[in-house]
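Inverse folding, one chain.
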C-alpha cells in the first residue's frame, strides 16, 4: 500500500469513528431526544459533524471547486460535493440532526476510491514486473577492471560484460562464456535458456550463472528491452471502442442527471404549490434530488471499464504477450480469420540441405558456389546453404550480386556467372532445368549459363503450430490461411501437415498485402482478421490487417514496430491465449456495463419516487463500484486460460 493510500485509510478510520461517536451522542444528547437531561443545541451538532465530514472529504470538495473554476463542472467530485453539502444543509434547516447520511456518503465514496486505487496499483504491479527489466547500467572493461556506464552511452560493437545475477542491458552476440538466462519477464517462460559463444541474446534477460562477454548489435534505444517498455508505456493511450463509449456516455450523462436532479427538486413542489389545498414539500423533494445525485454518480463505469482493459493488458504481458492498446485487445476478441506467414511463423525457419540432385559437379563444389552467391543475404535459406558449405566465406571471391525479388540471386563467383534460385529464375535466364520430385524448397543452380543441378532444402514445422491451429478452430476462428513464397507443392505439403484451411503459394512480398485485402473484404462487420508474421517483408501486411501479430523473440524490428501484438517467445499457441484473454476481458467489461446501468437506473427511479434513501444511494454508487472493480481485476488472472 502506498503512502497516499495509507493516509487515506487513516482518514477513513478517523472519520468513521467520529461519525459513530457523534451518532450515538446525538441519540442521547440531541435536542430532539426525549427527557429533560443535558441537551446540546443543533448548531453545536452541525459544527461537530463538520469535523469528520471535512476529514474524509476535504479533497473531494477542493477538486469540485477547481473543476468549477476551470469550467469542468460535471464530474463525480461535483456530484458528491453537491449531494453531501445539500444533505447537511437540509438537516441543519430541518433541525433533525440527521447529518450521518451526508458523512456516510462521503465516507463510503472515499472507501470505494481507496479500493479502486488499490486495484489499479495491483494491476500496475503486474505490468511493473515488465518494467523491472529496465537495466540500470552496462559493464565495460577499462584499465583491467569493470566500469559501470549508462546503457544509452554504449555504441554498437562494444564488448560488455554481464556477470551472474545481472540483467543483460543491450541486445548482442555472446563472444565468450556460457550461462543460463532467465527470460520469464520477457516471454513468460519459466525454463532457463542456455547460451554459449555465438548465440544471440536479448536485453532484459537475467544472467543466472556464468560470466558472459557480449558484443552489442544494437544501441540501447533500439534494444528489445527499450521496445518493450515503450509498448507498455504507450498501451494505455490507445482506447477501445468500449472506453470511448464510456467517456462519451459520462460526458452527456453527468450533466443530464444534474439537471434532472434540479428539476426533481423544483418542479414537483412548484406543482404542489400551484394546486389549491396542497402544501409544497420542498425539503422532501430536495432530499430526493440529493439522493438522485448520489445514485447517479458514474464511478462504476468510469473506473471499472478502463481498469478491466488495463488488467487484461497486464495479465497478457505477464504471459509474454505484449498488446499495444486496449483497442487491439478488443479487436482480438472478434478474430474470425487468422492469416499466417510460413517461414519463421508456423515453421522454425531453420532450413537444412536434404539433398543435391542432378548435379554436374561434386556436392561440395555446387554447395560452395551456392553459399558464395548467397553470402550477402540474411534469408534463412541462404544461411542454410552457408551452413551446409561449412567453411568460412571469402567474400573477395564474389562480385556483382543481383538479388531478384521472388526468384533468386545472380552473382560473379571466381569470375563465373552463378545463378541460384527457383524455376522462375531459370526461365528468365532461358536455362533448361530439371524439376525435383521431392517435397521441399528447390534451389536450381546454373554456372555460366549451363544447368548444374538443384539443391533440396527442407523447413521444419515449429513446435506448437499444429496444436495452435487446432485450438484456433476450437475457439471460434472460422478460417486459417497460410501465405508463402514457396512453390505450390512444398506449401501444400506443409499446410496439410499442420491442418491449415487454405494455402496460397508462389507469392512475392507485395502479393501478401493484396491477398490480405482480399480476405479482409470477405470479413463481416463484426469480424476481424489477424495476420501473424516475423520478417521485414511482413511489416506492410501487419499494418494492413485488423490485428498484426509479430513473433518478437526472433522477429525483425520492422515487424515488431508494425505489429499490434507481439509474442515474446515466438510460440504460435500464444495467439490462442491472446484471443482467450481478450474475450475474458471483454466479457468482464460487458458484465460491468450491464450491472452498473441496470442497478443505476433502477435506483434512480426508486430515488425519484422517494422509495430509495441515502443508504440505498450509497450502495448504488459505492457498492456497485466495488463489485465492478472486483470483477475488473479478474482480468489479471490469465495463467490457466
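Residues assigned per position:
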Amino acid at each position: 500500500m502506498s503512502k497516499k493510500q495509507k493516509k487515506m485509510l487513516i482518514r477513513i478510520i478517523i472519520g468513521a469513528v467520529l461519525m459513530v461517536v457523534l451518532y450515538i451522542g446525538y441519540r442521547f444528547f440531541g435536542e430532539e431526544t426525549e427527557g429533560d437531561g443535558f441537551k446540546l443545541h443543533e448548531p453545536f451538532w452541525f459544527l461537530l459533524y463538520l469535523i469528520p465530514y471535512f476529514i474524509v472529504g476535504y479533497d473531494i470538495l477542493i477538486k469540485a471547486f477547481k473543476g468549477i473554476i476551470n469550467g469542468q463542472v460535471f464530474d463525480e467530485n461535483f456530484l458528491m460535493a453537491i449531494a453531501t453539502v445539500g444533505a447537511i444543509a437540509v438537516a441543519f434547516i430541518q433541525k433533525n440532526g440527521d447529518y450521518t447520511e451526508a458523512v456516510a456518503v462521503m465516507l463510503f465514496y472515499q472507501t470505494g476510491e481507496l479500493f479502486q486505487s488499490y486495484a489499479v496499483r495491483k494491476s500496475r504491479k503486474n505490468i511493473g514486473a515488465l518494467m523491472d527489466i529496465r537495466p540500470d547500467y552496462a559493464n565495460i572493461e577499462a584499465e583491467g577492471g569493470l566500469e559501470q556506464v549508462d546503457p544509452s552511452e554504449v555504441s554498437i560493437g562494444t564488448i560488455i560484460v554481464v556477470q551472474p545475477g545481472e540483467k543483460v542491458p543491450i541486445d548482442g552476440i555472446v563472444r565468450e562464456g556460457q550461462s543460463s538466462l532467465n527470460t520469464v519477464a520477457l516471454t513468460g517462460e519459466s525454463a532457463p535458456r542456455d547460451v554459449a559463444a555465438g548465440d544471440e541474446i536479448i536485453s532484459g534477460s537475467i544472467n543466472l550463472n556464468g560470466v558472459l562477454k557480449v558484443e552489442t548489435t544494437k544501441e540501447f534505444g533500439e534494444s528489445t528491452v527499450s521496445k518493450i517498455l515503450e509498448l507498455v508505456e504507450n498501451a494505455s493511450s490507445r482506447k477501445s471502442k468500449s472506453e470511448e463509449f464510456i467517456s462519451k456516455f459520462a460526458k452527456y450523462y453527468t450533466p443530464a442527471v444534474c439537471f434532472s436532479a434540479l428539476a426533481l427538486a423544483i418542479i414537483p413542489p412548484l406543482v404542489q404549490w400551484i394546486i389549491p389545498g396542497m402544501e409544497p414539500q420542498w425539503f422532501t423533494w430536495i432530499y430526493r434530488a440529493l439522493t438522485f445525485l448520489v445514485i447517479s454518480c458514474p464511478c462504476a463505469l468510469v473506473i471499472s471499464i478502463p481498469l478491466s482493459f488495463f488488467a487484461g493488458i497486464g495479465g497478457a504481458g505477464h504471459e509474454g504477450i505484449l498488446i499495444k492498446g486496449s483497442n487491439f485487445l478488443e479487436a482480438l476478441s472478434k478474430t474470425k480469420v487468422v492469416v499466417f506467414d510460413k517461414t519463421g511463423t508456423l515453421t522454425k525457419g531453420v532450413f537444412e540441405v536434404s539433398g543435391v540432385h542432378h548435379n554436374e559437379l561434386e556436392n561440395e563444389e555446387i554447395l560452395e558456389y551456392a553459399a558464395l552467391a548467397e553470402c550477402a543475404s540474411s534469408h534463412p535459406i541462404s544461411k542454410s546453404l552457408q551452413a551446409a558449405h561449412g567453411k568460412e566465406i571469402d567474400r573477395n571471391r564474389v562480385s556483382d550480386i543481383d538479388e531478384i525479388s521472388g526468384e533468386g540471386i545472380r552473382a560473379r563467383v571466381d569470375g563465373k556467372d552463378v545463378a541460384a534460385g527457383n524455376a522462375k529464375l531459370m526461365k528468365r535466364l532461358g536455362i533448361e532445368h530439371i524439376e525435383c520430385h521431392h517435397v521441399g524448397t528447390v534451389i536450381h543452380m546454373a554456372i555460366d549459363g549451363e544447368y548444374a543441378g538443384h539443391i533440396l532444402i527442407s523447413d521444419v514445422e515449429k513446435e506448437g503450430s499444429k496444436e495452435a491451429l487446432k485450438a484456433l478452430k476450437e475457439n471460434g476462428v472460422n478460417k486459417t490461411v497460410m501465405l508463402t513464397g514457396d512453390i505450390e507443392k512444398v506449401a501444400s505439403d506443409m499446410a496439410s501437415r499442420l491442418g491449415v484451411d487454405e494455402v496460397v503459394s508462389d507469392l512475392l512480398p507485395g502479393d501478401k498485402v493484396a491477398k490480405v485485402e482480399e480476405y479482409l473484404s470477405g470479413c463481416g462487420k463484426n469480424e476481424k482478421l489477424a495476420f501473424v508474421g516475423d520478417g521485414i517483408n511482413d511489416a506492410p501486411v501487419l499494418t494492413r490487417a485488423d490485428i498484426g501479430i509479430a513473433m518478437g523473440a526472433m522477429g525483425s524490428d520492422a515487424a515488431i514496430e508494425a505489429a499490434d501484438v507481439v509474442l515474446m517467445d515466438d510460440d504460435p499457441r500464444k495467439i490462442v491465449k491472446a484471443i482467450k484473454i481478450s474475450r475474458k476481458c471483454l466479457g468482464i467489461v460487458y458484465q460491468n456495463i450491464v450491472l452498473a446501468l441496470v442497478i443505476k437506473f433502477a435506483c434512480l427511479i426508486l430515488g425519484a419516487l422517494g422509495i430509495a434513501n441515502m443508504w440505498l444511494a450509497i450502495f448504488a454508487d459505492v457498492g456497485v463500484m466495488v463489485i465492478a472493480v472486483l470483477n475488473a481485476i479478474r482480468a489479471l488472472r490469465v495463467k490457466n486460460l
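The chain has a mean pLDDT of 80. The chain has 20 helices and 22 strands.
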